[in-house]
Amino acid sequence: MSNMATSLIMHKRISTTLAKAKELRKYVEPLVTRSKNDTTHSRRMVFSQLQNKFAVTELFREIAPKIAARPGGYTRILKTGFRKGDNAEMCIIEFVDYNETYTVEGGKKKTTRTRRSSKKAAAEVAETVAEVAETAAEAPAAE
What we know:
This protein is an alpha+beta fold. It contains 5 helices and 3 strands; from the N terminus they run αβαααββα. Strand 2 (75-82) and strand 3 form a beta hairpin.
């Protein structure tokens, strides 16, 4: 599990079987929660699980600030189909905030337009309606 967790932390996304991904989620989520509190004790506790100082550094410097406001659910499992050789169900496990397809951070805000009817615009509409009514009244008289 520590090798898969290290790969997930370093690459932000890995492809594996569904059963392994579900177990990896149980293993990684407490480590990510512990990384929110950047103390020597929490770093040592995470290092005792991962045994890779580069992964620990990546977790505390890159991942922890991005997920600081999130209360849980740091990973996402996306099913990709079945493996050809043994028909095992394959999936991709990834960190939630690192997939640009699903996250909308810098997107444009939807703006609504409000129209105000001023007295001038209302007068123009009334004038147009009056002209249409006059032409409709004159048309039968001309025949």
